[in-house]
């Protein structure tokens, strides 16, 4: 158990040790909480089960997360974490750029357990209405913003033309989510392979381009 480790001598070493220990305990608790909440649901998961699964004491758990609601909220928040901030694509080739952005979105939506996370958040919305906003803000909005910003950059570059960037972004991400995520919510055997997902993303990018591309001969006259 994490609590059995001994601290190094010296005040600075001890402080660093306790910070590292608290971080490791938190990571262990959130990992255990994710496994149990997704397997057993909110009501079926107790704090005692989470502490045992994480290999920490109940006192350590309560110090980090005084209530099950706080632990659940933290678990949902960390499930959407993106490890590395990726650079936005350069305007000029809308299909390639949208395919890159769409692939990043599809990769997130097809993470192991993501459909289960959606199911449990939807099921617990009456109990935790704020989690719906958290789920949306941390999950979809970063990708929504990146796609909308790129569409506007393409419009400024004269390669695409549209009236409502928010609507085009919603349509693009919706085409991807409607293939890689939402069928999983109802069909437990829905599991398209990587090539099929890649094709769905590329088709979404091609659809946006076919609808909104500015013809080559008209680009010099397009507003920038």
State the gist of this model.
This protein has 224 residues and is mainly α. The chain has helices spanning 11-44, 47-54, 58-64, 68-79, 94-109, 114-124, 129-139, 141-157, 165-180, 182-186, 194-212.
The major beta sheet can be summarized as: none
Count of distinct strands: 0
Indicate the CATH architecture of the largest domain: Orthogonal Bundle
Report the β-strand fraction as a percent range: under 5%
Helix content: 55-70%
User: What ranges have pLDDT less than 50 throughout 5 or more consecutive residues?
Assistant: none
As a whole number of angstroms, the C-alpha radius of gyration is 22 Å
Q: Helix segment count?
A: 11
Gap between N and C termini: 61 Å
**Class from secondary-structure proportions:** mainly alpha
Task: Classify the fold: give the CATH topology of the largest domain.
Answer: Tetracycline Repressor, domain 2
Which superfamily, in CATH terms, is the homologous superfamily of the largest domain?
A: Tetracycline Repressor, domain 2
**Mean of all residue-level pLDDT scores:** 88
Shape: elongated
Report on the structure:
InterPro entries: Homeodomain-like_sf, HTH-type_TetR-like_transc_reg, HTH_TetR, Tet_transcr_reg_TetR-rel_C_sf, TetR_C_Proteobacteria. Residues 23-83 form the HTH tetR-type domain. This is TetR/AcrR family transcriptional regulator. Residues 46-65 bind DNA. Keywords: DNA-binding. This protein is mostly helical. The protein folds into two domains: 2-79, Homeodomain-like (Arc Repressor Mutant, subunit A), CATH 1.10.10.60; 94-221, Tetracycline Repressor, domain 2. It is built from eleven helices and no strands. It has helices at residues 11-44, 47-54, 58-64, 68-79, 94-109, 114-124, 129-139, 141-157, 165-180, 182-186, 194-212. The radius of gyration is 22 Å and the shape is elongated. The mean pLDDT is 88.
């Amino acid at each position: 158990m994490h609590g059995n480790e001994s601290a190094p001598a010296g005040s600075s070493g001890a402080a660093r040790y306790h910070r590292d220990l608290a971080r490791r305990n938190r990571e262990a608790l959130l990992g255990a909480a994710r496994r149990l909440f997704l397997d057993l649901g909110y009501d079926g998961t107790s704090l005692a089960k989470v502490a045992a699964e994480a290999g920490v004491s109940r006192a350590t758990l309560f110090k980090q997360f005084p209530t099950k609601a706080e632990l659940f909220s933290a678990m949902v928040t960390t499930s959407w974490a993106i490890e590395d901030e990726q650079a936005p694509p350069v305007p000029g080739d809308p299909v390639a750029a949208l395919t890159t952005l769409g692939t990043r979105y599809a990769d997130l939506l097809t993470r192991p357990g993501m459909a289960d996370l959606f199911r449990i958040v939807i099921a617990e919305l009456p109990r935790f209405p704020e989690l719906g906003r958290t789920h949306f803000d941390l999950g979809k909005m970063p990708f929504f913003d990146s796609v909308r910003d790129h569409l506007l950059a393409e419009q400024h570059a004269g390669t695409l033309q549209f009236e409502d960037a928010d609507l085009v972004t919603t349509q693009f991400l919706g085409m991807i989510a409607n293939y890689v995520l939402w069928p999983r919510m109802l069909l437990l055997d829905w599991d398209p392979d990587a090539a099929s997902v890649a094709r769905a993303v590329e088709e979404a990018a091609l659809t946006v381009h076919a609808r909104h591309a500015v013809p080559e001969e008209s680009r010099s006259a397009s507003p920038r």
